[in-house]
Amino acid sequence: MKKQQPRRQRPRLQSSPRQCECFADWLCYVNNRQLMRLLVGLGNPGTRYARNRHNVGFMVIDAIARKHDNTGFRNRFKGELSEAFIGGNRVLLLKPQTFMNASGESVGEASRFFKLSLSEIIVIHDEIDLRPGKVRVKQGGGSAGHNGLRSIDALLGPDYWRVRIGVGHPGMKELVQPYVLQNFSAEELTGWVAPLLGAVAETIPLLLSDAADAFMSEVARRFAPAG
Length: 227
Known about the structure:
By secondary structure, this protein is of the alpha/beta class. The protein is built from seven helices and seven strands.
């Protein structure tokens, strides 16, 4: 009688990212889950730029990571990548470390690895054409001169979601670059930036549930924009 060969066991998936022993295990873990969204915050890397108006996208991602259980950021895809648990769903958080003008390289690598469509990508960025603290969401559109969006558009196309965080306009076109690369003042940080970050982090489950209008309304209810 032919001896029956033992059945090969399939590799067990980790029940939680915190049980993963190495980054390869973690990638296997997330790649075997249906990922709802890739949340990308735009900014420039390094402490020199950390409080710049141009870095409000990074600030939002950090606020979301503080609010929701996550794996911690690791260097991956030319950026810092984490996985958060939001409303019972697993969501990738990405902060490109390529500098703003090459943000598309990081977003492109991550989206290709996880096989995400543009409709599953949400990019959070500063918007000078909105008053400080105003939040608007849209899918697709132009870059409006924003170098981070221009980079993503060139490499992936424009049909991803955008969360536009108003930082105000300096009043003259030639002042825009120095303005967005200036730090928020202490008054701005305490007066509207910190409260807005908290409101967005608390309300982000609505956006991830495809309720963009409800998300904007709830952010506005929790936080009254300055100006």
